[in-house]
Specification:
It is a single chain. The protein has 201 residues and is an alpha/beta fold. It has two domains: 134 residues, Response regulator (Rossmann fold, 3-Layer(aba) Sandwich), CATH 3.40.50; 55 residues, Orthogonal Bundle (Arc Repressor Mutant, subunit A). It is 52% helix and 14% strand. The protein has a five-stranded parallel β-sheet, with helices on both faces. It is globular and about 55 Å long. Keywords: DNA-binding, Phosphoprotein. Pfam families: GerE (PF00196), Response_reg (PF00072). This is Putative regulatory gene.
Length: 201
């Protein structure tokens, strides 16, 4: 039996996935939750064979959570769902050894077959996505700078970013100032716009 953790922010979509997977005799959903901060604790508790994660959760860096799951639970394979593929997202996912990619518009049977392939130890990567990720030039920002910029883009202020990343507010301000300078931006929000337009966030 394949144990699946389903992390999907939209309740209706999550319900549809649950109904779909309930029809399969060899798959059992051991946990279902909104993606985000609950993801790592749920994975620790249920130790799924496959974690299916919607990475479009606003205000949370789900790829960092997935990386933590890989470090703590190396036997758990991960399948990420998203509606928009940006080269930086694909590159990061490949770097942290995500097991598979799936766009939300994929047919339902593709989700089921991909879960089975991951549980069997295979990696399910769309070739065109992988090629586009590696052919696109990398952003001029460090991973930490991108992480802070993503949180700023989600609406977090300096105190919230500092608390979330266990940094001092002064350090966060320095990062944001450096990002603004690197991108030749006028303001912090201008830097967010530039990075978003380039597909880095």
């Amino acid at each position: 039996m394949i144990k699946v953790l389903l992390a999907q922010d939209g309740r209706m979509v999550r319900g549809a996935f649950l109904a779909l997977l309930a029809q399969e005799n060899d798959i059992v959903v051991v946990a279902e939750l909104a993606a985000g901060r609950e993801l790592v604790p749920a994975a620790r508790r249920f130790e799924p064979d496959v974690a299916v994660v919607d990475i479009d959760t606003p205000g949370h860096d789900d790829l960092s959570s997935i990386q933590q799951i890989h470090e703590e639970l190396p036997q758990t394979r991960t399948l990420i769902l998203t509606s928009t593929w940006r080269p930086t997202i694909v590159r990061r996912a490949l770097d942290i050894q995500v097991g598979g990619f799936l766009v939300k518009e994929s047919p339902p049977e593709k989700l089921v077959s991909t879960i089975r392939e991951l549980a069997a130890g295979l990696r399910v990567i769309d070739f065109d996505l992988a090629v586009s990720a590696w052919q696109s030039p990398p952003p001029p920002l460090t991973e930490r700078q991108l992480e802070i910029l993503r949180l700023a883009a989600a609406g977090d202020g300096v105190p919230e970013i500092a608390a979330r990343l266990h940094l001092s507010p002064g350090t966060v301000r320095n990062y944001l100032s450096s990002v603004t300078t690197k991108l030749n931006a006028r303001t912090r929000m201008d830097a967010v716009r530039i990075a978003a337009d380039a597909g880095w966030l």
